[in-house]
Amino acid sequence: MNKVSGSAAEAVADIPDGASLAVGGFGLSGVPDVLIGALLKQEAAGLEVVSNNCGVDGRGLGVLLAAGRIARVTGSYVGENKEFARQYLSGELEVELTPQGTLAERLRAGGAGIPAFYTPAGVGTQVAEGGLPWRYAPGGSVAVASPPKEIRDFSGRPYLLEHGITTDFALVRAWRGDRHGNLVFRRAAANFNPLAAMAGRITIAEVEELVEPGELAPDDVHLPGIYVQRIVELTPEQAADKRIEKRTVSI
């Protein structure tokens, strides 16, 4: 039951080329930076990433992107990452843009064993009708476009079919965790982290504070350890290293 790995490098050592990864975080909040850094050094390539966004230039998933390790992204936001936009528009990267709530539910559904569900989000748009550019050709034409999705009426309202997402691995960051893999997320870090953790067949969590089993009150646990296979304890310096994507101050 002791799921603690000796290091982040040890925890990600068996992630192969071409693996699919669900990665927690929103902007730079709750991003598993230490695991991402270890994966960068591990040199796995051709990765297929499912995450709300792909970090920023030089931070989060942006470091894997800049190193050319990511082949495909399923997400909802290109954001402030100029390299992400450049690779997408130049045809170097395949990108499946998905409504944010739909992405969250696809991850949750995959983790819960639900193969597909119907949602009104995207009805009447290219999300439903198909034709969204997934990959551009070098000349700027669309090389791969999204397919149309099944639409069905329920009580006179149209809904489209979306499929649950499961991945080979998941990388997440938690505030507290115990050796059994039970996790607690704090404030904004409780964004896509629980959902990404559910979707991964092998979930690796970096935790800011590691406690012994029984120290976490059952009512405080956000994600039970059944979803987590490996735990990495962060150093105090690593736990305190939290960047702000956009700093706003008032005078």
UniProtKB/TrEMBL annotation:
Pfam families, per the entry: CoA_trans
One MF term in the entry's GO annotations: transferase activity
InterPro entries given in the database record: 3-oxoacid_CoA-transf_A (IPR012792), CoA_trans_fam_I (IPR004165), CoA_transf_BS (IPR004163), NagB/RpiA_transferase-like (IPR037171)
Record-linked SMART domains: CoA_trans (SM00882)
Gene3D superfamilies per UniProt: Glutaconate Coenzyme A-transferase
Statement: the UniProt record of this protein carries the keyword S-adenosyl-L-methionine: no
Keyword entries, A-Z: Transferase
Family (UniProt): Belongs to the 3-oxoacid CoA-transferase subunit A family.
NCBIfam families referenced in this protein's UniProt entry, alphabetically: pcaI_scoA_fam
Stated name of the protein: CoA transferase subunit A
